[in-house]
Amino acid sequence: YCYDEPHCDPYSWGDSFPSCHPLLERCHSPINLDHQLVRNDSLGPLHLEGFDAVQPGHWTLENDGHSVLLQVGSGMAVSGGGLPDVYHTIQLHFHWGGLATNGSEHTVDGRRYPMEMHIVNMKSVHPNESAALDDPTGFAVLGFFVDVVYADNVHFGHISQKLSSVAYRGQMTKVKPFPLLSLLPKHNMSQYYRYSGSLTTPPCSQAVVWTLYEVPIYISWSQLAQFTSQIFSTEEDAEQVTPLQNNFRHVHPTFSCTVSASRDAGLLRAAAVSKGPLPLFWCFLLNLIPG
Asked: Where in the sequence is the signal peptide annotated (predicted)?
C-alpha cells in the first residue's frame, strides 16, 4: 500500500483490502476529536510497565517504506485505564506530512498537528499479530500528537539522530534502548481520549482500543524536517527516489462510535481557545486550570 500516487491513495485501499471500506456500523480510524465527547470518570492513568527503565539488549529502527518503526522487543507492557487486558508493547512508529503541510492522523477540531506517534501494544493472550487482528480489542495503541518548537528535544534525539541510517526503504539500524517515558508528556498522562477503532493502515482491521493523549510531544523544526525531507519510500538504488511524505490515512466520520474523555482530560478546552495546536507556554497554563 502507499499514499502519494493517485492509484493507491488511502481512499482506494478497499479495492485490495475489503476491510478498509468504511461501513456505517463500524468505527474506522483516524477520526476528528471535537466536543462530542462523553466524560468517563473511571478512566484514570494507564499503567506503563517498564517505560521508565532502560531495557536490555538493543532496539531496531526500520524504514519499511510506509513509516519509520522502532521495534522495542520485550520488557514493556500497558494496562489499566479501562483497558480490558494487559498489552505487551511491540513497536512505535510515526505519521507526518510534507515540507509545508501537517501530517497527524487524528485531528483536533479539524486541525492537524505536524506529526503523530503511535505506540503499538498487543494483547498478551495472543501468540502473534495475526491472531490479535481477529480480536476487536487485540491492540491498544497510544497516540501522541507531535508539535514543533525551536529547541531540540534531547530525548527524541535517540530516534532522530539515527534517521540518516534508515533514509531508504528496507534499511535498518540498531538503537540503544532508552526510557520510553522520557519521550512522553509524563506529567499529563492522565489526560486522554478513548474510542474503539481500526488500524490506520491495511488491512484496516477493527481491532484497536485507541488512547489519544491531549498534551503533545514537542520536537524542533530541524527534527521534524528530518522526517519530511530526509526519509524516502524507495530503496537507495531505485531509478527515481521518492520522499516518504503524507503517510496518514484520511479522517473518518464517527457515526455511532462513542469517544470518551478521561477523568482529567480538558475536553478539548485548548481547541476552544485556539483553532490550532497551542504553543507550549499556553498548553502549560491551561493545564494549571482545574478541570
From this structure: none
86 vs 102: CA distance, rounded Å: 33
Cα end-to-end distance, the chain, whole Å: 42
C-alpha cell at 72: 522495542
pTM for this one? 0.90
What is 191-247 written as a DSSP string? Answer: -EEEEEE--SSTT--S-EEEEEEEEEEEEEHHHHHHHHHH-BSS-TT-SS--B----
Distance between CA 30 and CA 212 in Å, rounded?
A: 11
Phi-psi region of 80 (alpha: psi -120 to 50; beta: other; left: phi over 0): left
Task: Write down all domains in the chain, each with its CATH number in brackets.
Answer: 18-286 (3.10.200.10)
Q: What is the largest CA-CA distance in the chain?
A: 57
Which residue is associated with the grid cell 463500524? Answer: 26
Task: Please give the Cα distance from 232 to 227 (Å, whole number).
Answer: 9
| Secondary-structure breakdown of the chain: helix, strand, coil percentages, each rounded to the nearest 5 | 20, 30, 55
pLDDT per residue, tens digit, the chain (291 aa), is 776 665 567 776 766 777 787 665 678 999 999 988 999 999 999 999 999 999 999 999 999 999 999 999 999 999 999 999 999 999 999 999 998 999 999 999 999 999 999 999 999 999 999 999 999 999 999 999 999 999 999 999 999 999 999 999 999 999 999 999 999 999 999 999 999 999 999 889 999 999 999 999 999 999 999 999 999 999 999 999 999 999 999 999 888 789 999 999 987 654 443 344 444 444 444 444 444
